[in-house]
């Protein structure tokens, strides 16, 4: 009886923590046999999240934008959002690079480099990738782009759709605004349902990661691992909270509490894209940011604002260069900063996506592609950590921008 009453008191974040802990234990103690149960749980959770992303973004953006209208409001919001995205990513990169230069964990590491997969050697230039990204915003076939999981074309189309709703005569304008707002409410209810099964899904995902990870190759790279982790921790616990405190004028702790389930989901899925429904639900319902700002800032943020990824990519390239004994001069380091910023924008919001964009930075400064093999050992765990930072930064961005727009997030 007492146990039951105690269990009832545990909130969603608590249940997710339990899912993570039990998943870690199960993966460690039982290992691969546990995957018979764990794998379907994790897979179903990811499938549910991915199922709701497209309709949720469409409903949220169209109802949000039709509320802001075109013109000054939208332009101002766009400008602030872009400024926030770029400046926080830049700060993250600088932190990562300072640590890598100070600790220099790569000099003296001699590893047997495996062959780099073909896709890496054939990688395009960073500017080519950014150009392609911008071009892909305007799809020749919207449905195909969406079916392929491309979110940017969907965002672009929905913004246009929302803007032009506001230009209609009153009757169809009110009708469409009401329809999309109702559509959005339905999507939020479905999102709540998916969130309620998050602890089970997360249990499955963590069991799989732990069961499938070997620990042999970790030794010589531990210092590298802790440097990246230290950088991510600095960004999440110092840089972003300072921005929240002084620009957003909200308590960072309160915000972390409000975002708990989304952050833990980001950690478990290693995908900002898959976490997006939870990020949106939390920012709106727990942090109290309006739908018009949430719907504008978050879908775009999940796709292009990746502070953790930016830090990781720049620091990893510096580390790889160090293992080759390459000393990078100031000009080359500046090139790393700029290309890492662009590469983080071009990185997809899915697990392991950084591994596809890091070679672009390596190419810009002439570091051998084979070096990417070294960082694979720790990529999964660092992916979980950097994705959490990516999602946290998106959510802080929504709060800070809401505050500068006169809203009072996390009030009371
Ligand atoms: N997994 C990251 C994300 O979804 C991207 C990356 O690989 O850095 O945010």
Structure in words:
It is built from 19 helices and no strands. By secondary structure, it is mainly α. The protein has a single domain, classed as Proton glutamate symport protein. α4 packs antiparallel against α19 (379-404). It is globular, with a radius of gyration of 21 Å. Residues 114-123 have low confidence and may be disordered. Bound molecules: aspartic acid.
Q: Distance N terminus to C terminus?
A: 34 Å
Share of helical residues: over 70%
- Treating each run of at least 4 consecutive H or I residues as one helix, how many helices? 19
Strand-and-helix sequence, N→C? Answer: HHHHHHHHHHHHHHHHHHH
Oligomerization: single chain
Global mean pLDDT: 86
In CATH, the topology is named: Proton glutamate symport protein
At a glance:
By secondary structure, the protein is mainly alpha-helical. Helices cover 77% and strands 0% of the residues. It is globular and about 70 Å long.
Write the layout of secondary structure elements.
Elements: H1 2-9, H2 12-29, H3 35-68, H4 72-103, H5 118-121, H6 126-136, H7 142-147, H8 151-165, H9 170-196, H10 198-212, H11 222-246, H12 252-269, H13 272-285, H14 291-304, H15 307-323, H16 330-346, H17 354-365, H18 372-375, H19 379-404
